[in-house]
Amino acid sequence: MAETRHYDAMIAEGTGQRVQTDRREDTSDAHSTGCGSTRIMRCRPRIPTRIPVRILACLLLVAAATAHALAPPAPSARTEPIPGTTVRAPQTQAARAEPEAASGWRARAPVAAHEFLAVTANPHATRAAVAVLERGGHAVDAAIAAQMVLGLVEPQSSGIGGGAFLVLYDAASGRVHAFDGRETAPAQARPELFLHADGTPMDFFEAAVGGRAVGAPGVVGMLEQVHRRFGRLDWASLFEPAIGLARDGFAVSARLHALLDADPWLPAQKAAADLYLDRNGRAWPPGYRLRNPALADTLARIARDGSAALREGPIADDIVAAVRTHPNPGMLSAADLAAWQPLEREPLCFRHGRYRICGMPPPSSGTIALAQMLAFWQLAGPVVHLSTPDGALLVDGMHRFIEAERLAFADRAEYVADTDFVALPGQAPGEAVKAGPGTLLDPAYLQRRARRIGPNARPVVAAGDLRTPPRRTPPLTPPLTPPPAPAFEPRSTTHLSIVDRDGNIVSMTSSIENAFGSRLLVRGFLLNNQLTDFSFVPQHDGRPVANRLQPGKRPRSSMSPLIVFDADSGQPVLVLGSPGGPAIISYVARTLISLLDDGVGLGQTLAMPNFGSRQAQTVLERDRVPAALADRLAARGHDIHWREMTSGLHVIRLQCGTPRDCVLEGAADPRREGLAAGQ
């Protein structure tokens, strides 16, 4: 069967499936009825294959330019190019990536600062954060301003219709706080939500597009809670940059254009198509001014009324209507929106050498997996390095890293979920993550697991045997085979790192799950499809899957916002995180090892090739990892697959005498359009 065009190419965890970005006509009766179809697909007439390639390319370029030149003005959402911008479409290859399309390589030197620094995924958002910090705002204030702008200029990644995790360091008290703004499943949802009548799981986009997978959004409610405790500037003032930009318009970036152009589901969703596509169903090119007055109005209501504007009243009514009346309807109700609450959880902190690393506990699987990976990295044998000091990868380090990741992901798949519903091994439901006997971070258990790392690859790894926990936890029998992985596991996510002039720190990762989420646009913002982060299959080997869908439950995430401290002095040394779906854990672990263990410079670390694995496949970043290294890994039994791996690491490194006396160095991943700026 021919494949439809997807926005990325990604390994399906534990499977050999690949999602393509090619524009192809699906001739299957189950998905399309041809070029006259009204299904979610764009069909194009066939071009005679005898036309020479160069001539055809020229004809296509001329046709594209003519179409945009002749297209009638769009109603209200967009108009002319912004003066002074260059309109240039990205290369076709930019639309093929994991988990979001690449948008070129923009190598930037790290930025130094002494008072404050912000790194976000878009220059507009970074400038909004810096403006807040210049006014004396707290890092939380800057994060709110940046997030509201990101939801406008980077709608594929995050927004007020999604959720987030935020880790905060309060310099005055020296305490770390962890705030959970993750979405929740509707009260009427059941574990079988993503199964067909015959018990087979749905395809990913069959579940994701429409209302079925929409959870109660939480990012605004969580930010409101944190602002009440730590914010300095007026709540409403933090929305002004995003409101102004939404009303006046912003230049569509090459990255946003590539993602819009690569998505075959937006054209069938009228509200989203009216905003992001022209009348011919094509994405507006880079440089065009995109206005979103509906979002400006929504943000103005939130600025005035707080998160209640999304939980009750006309906006909440429109959210519920969009979800429930879609042809692929969901179960979100007004009661679900009203019942959602932010949570402050006990941060999960662990030692790595002379450092103390702090992040989110479940429902994030990120910090647990990182703690396990770094333990396996150290315990598996004699010291190895991931790279040379100048960032050149070394095969011994790559092999150990990949094998450590396989072990951690096997435990993640088996045991980790929302701990308010499913207890971790050796622990009670709702209990903060511990490192006691019989737990996932039990030193003796980590030592045993690390011994499984040998000189050759182990493509399939089962979860660890934790069948003898304390009596208060029911015995767990690990499966003989790993639990099934979802057929497709993309994420669309953003991360920001901020340090203010008083030494307060925010590390926040937010998401609407897939690129453009559910594709449902309500009052200028996109709704999430976060429920697809639950396991589609609720049982395995006759036992409930930990991450099965349950009413009110928060889906497991890989988001890994971190703050790293010197364990002796207690001073912060790193702020970091990344988008990337399950690969977030790979990206963040690689960064930690490079900066903390191998002494690689910040700019060189972010430019290093990405790689990783979760089960059968070893994934290497296309055109970045040397072929000779791939050959040496293959000789050790690694099943090599090449992919674009579009990390979005945003890192701040601190050298502090006191919280108010720090030298700051910040950098954004060259694979995306992020920016570091400060003073």
Describe the structure.
The chain has 679 residues and is an alpha+beta fold. It has a domain at 111-344 and 492-678: Glutamine Phosphoribosylpyrophosphate, subunit 1, domain 1, CATH 3.60.20. It has 18 helices and 24 strands. A 7-stranded antiparallel β-sheet has the order 2-23-22-18-17-10-9. Strand 11 and strand 12 (505-513) form a beta hairpin. The longest helix has 21 residues, at 395-415. Residues 1-98, 468-482 and 485-491 have low confidence and may be disordered.
CATH architectural name of the domain at 111-344 and 492-678? 4-Layer Sandwich
Envelope shape: globular
Largest sheet, spatial ordering of strands: 2-23-22-18-17-10-9
Q: Taking Cα atoms only, what radius of gyration do you get, to the nearest Å? A: 24 Å
The DSSP helix count reads 18
What composes the largest sheet? 7 strands, antiparallel
How much β-strand is present in the residues?
Answer: 15-25%
Separation, N- and C-terminal Cα atoms: 55 Å
Give the SSE map:
Layout: H1 53-70, E1 78-81, E2 111-113, E3 117-120, H2 123-134, H3 139-153, E4 163-170, E5 175-181, H4 204-208, H5 219-230, H6 240-248, E6 250-251, H7 254-262, H8 270-276, E7 288-290, H9 293-305, H10 308-311, H11 314-324, H12 334-339, E8 343-345, E9 348-352, E10 355-359, H13 366-379, H14 395-415, H15 443-450, E11 492-499, E12 505-513, E13 521-522, E14 525-526, E15 539-540, E16 543-544, E17 562-566, E18 572-576, H16 583-597, H17 602-607, E19 611-613, E20 617-621, H18 627-635, E21 639-643, E22 650-658, E23 661-668, E24 675-678
Parallel strand pairs: 20-21
Antiparallel strand pairs: 1-7, 2-23, 3-11, 3-24, 4-5, 4-12, 5-8, 6-7, 9-10, 10-17, 11-12, 13-14, 15-16, 17-18, 18-22, 19-20, 22-23
Helix pairs in contact: 2-3, 3-6, 6-9, 13-14, 13-15, 13-16
